[in-house]
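Subject: for your reference before the review

Hello V.,

The reviewers asked for a structural picture of the protein, and I figured it would be easier to keep everything in one thread rather than splitting it across files. Below is the amino acid sequence we used in the manuscript, unchanged from the supplementary table.
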Amino acid sequence: MVHLLLVAHAPLATALAAVAAHAFPDCAAHLRVLDVAPTWSLDVATEHVQAQLSESGPVLVLVDVLGATPANAVMRCAASREATLVVSGVNVPMLWRTLCYAHEPLVDVAARALEGATRGVGLAGADV
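And here is what came back from the structure prediction:
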């Protein structure tokens, strides 16, 4: 089973988890969340990410922004951990596409995340 971990600037991860639980309450049960506080250093954030990744098994980590503290902490931990993939730019469609597919292989769940993100973003209702 693929574990899902949301890591983002506070309070985004918690807010996304609430949206996930609202839409897919049964599937959101295995979702883990880490809100990175604005006062945390990269080292402190890395410690918290490491604690979230202490379980064995494959993990898909969804982060908000590459290059920022949450993603940098995740990348530090993921580099030394097998069966861990990281997808940045987390949004609601990305999360919803992954929630109920934890039984699939990690790479397939990551592909679903990417598909959800790209298909869920667009210019709505405008004639361009």
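For the response letter, the relevant points are probably these. The longest strand covers residues 3-9. The mean pLDDT is 95.

Happy to draft the paragraph if you're swamped.

O.
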